[in-house]
Task: structure prediction
Amino acid sequence: MKKNLLFAFTFLFFLPAIYSKNINFQVVQNNPGFDTVFAVSNLFEQALSDFFFESGHIVSNSPVFIKEDSKSDSAELKRALADTLLGGMDVLVRLEIKYDEKTANSAGALLPNSVKSVSWQNYNPKTGKIISDGSIFPEKVDASNNNEAELYKFASFVAAKVSSTLKSLK
Result:
């Protein structure tokens, strides 16, 4: 009886490991003309990390990348894929945030209305091919909700959407 109970407990303890994924992610900041990482990009990075970790996944991240042109973006993608493969991760999630140039004039501002769109691509690090992708265009919020709490809520919503596109991975 004790052996069965011990076996059942051990099985339940390790059950989440069966369904967890090793995820490396990178936030790509797409706002031409700025060379500073925006606070919004850092908040998205934190929200992704929190969401995946709380979902039982093993999480790692590459530093926020400021996209200047397609050549530098391609080189950074190759580097991130190599790091993902070297780290033994199952997938690379690249989350690109496009900023509204009219409202994203302050690198320290945590305003949801500064985000124009968010898109992501999930890559197989062994092949470098996109496994799944998606995008979201946020709704504008009124002035009373244009704050950090609302932004974190939106970033967490995006993380849930990204996670749903990873469900089909084995």
Summary: DSSP finds four helices and six strands in the chain. Confidence is low (pLDDT under 50) at residues 10-18. The longest strand covers residues 22-30.
